């Protein structure tokens, strides 16, 4: 069994090295010259150097396409229509497409290489996405593995976003990370504070972006972000709300709660926040302050593995277990979920079983 595991590990490592060598060889040897990209039936025309991925090529031209994984082909967000010149759809793209999208020539822009002239179509709102120069004005540990990053915007000095949306954060090249990379992080701060944003970032073991942010980023450092992105935001209705988060998935829900407080939206709402132990709970004072401003808000923290010293008397188990116990009839509710995909899939299943129509369940999966 051990020999089989070692063999699989060796094969995986060899495949990864081969992929890196092929990518390096392509960068050195391939020369596609200048290519033209026609966007939205000629609304915008670009002349670019061929050879790069469409996602990065557009970004270099100031056109930003949503991507939560930084162009690694693992989030499925960077979809555009490639009407001419894109070649056949790749096996790396089809898991993120349905039959309708494939028929409409939708592609993942991080998987399409610019080898010749292209004709593409993107949503008009993508032209409104901007890149921002900012400076780090605060770094606050929220838990042993989660840090709040507070940015002040410099150029442009203000951002307009819907609470619940995210930005892409540029991590510069550093030893171990040979080129700049982008990662997506939800905005936790109120939309009314247009000249600053707060991000909540969980450290990922061997993660290139989070290693830099948690160990190298300092107050006063200049950074670049772009956005806003996403269709996770508060829908206006009078329905009771259920909000469910795990870990740093609390960030966009905090921004939505700030919106409710600022706009005096007094809907009944229950926030379920699932973490492992008491040390992993954060923004507790902020949630209490919001509850005082939103009379209809209830808060239920849930610990999956409370430590003996926690002396915990609240809800335990997975956060979805608490939801299943607490909610009997969800037929007139509206749900907002943010966290890891397993939690969201389980929450959707439970809420649907309680009568909540799936088209009233809104979520943002943190891969």
From TrEMBL:
**CDD domains to which the protein is assigned, alphabetical:** fer2
The UniProt record lists the 2Fe-2S ferredoxin-type domain at 35-126
Q: Does the keyword Membrane apply?
A: no
Q: Which domain of life is it from?
A: Bacteria
Looking up SUPFAM superfamilies in the UniProt record yields: 2Fe-2S ferredoxin-like (SSF54292), Ferredoxin reductase-like, C-terminal NADP-linked domain (SSF52343), Riboflavin synthase domain-like (SSF63380)
Q: Does the keyword Transport apply?
A: yes
Q: Which GO terms describe its molecular function?
A: iron-sulfur cluster binding; oxidoreductase activity
State the Pfam families in the record.
Answer: FAD_binding_6, Fer2, NAD_binding_1
Q: Which UniProt keywords apply?
A: FAD, Flavoprotein, Iron, Transport, Ubiquinone
Q: Where is the FAD-binding FR-type domain?
A: 129-235
* Protein's recorded name: Na+-transporting NADH:ubiquinone oxidoreductase subunit F
Q: Which organism is it from?
A: Desulfacinum hydrothermale DSM 13146
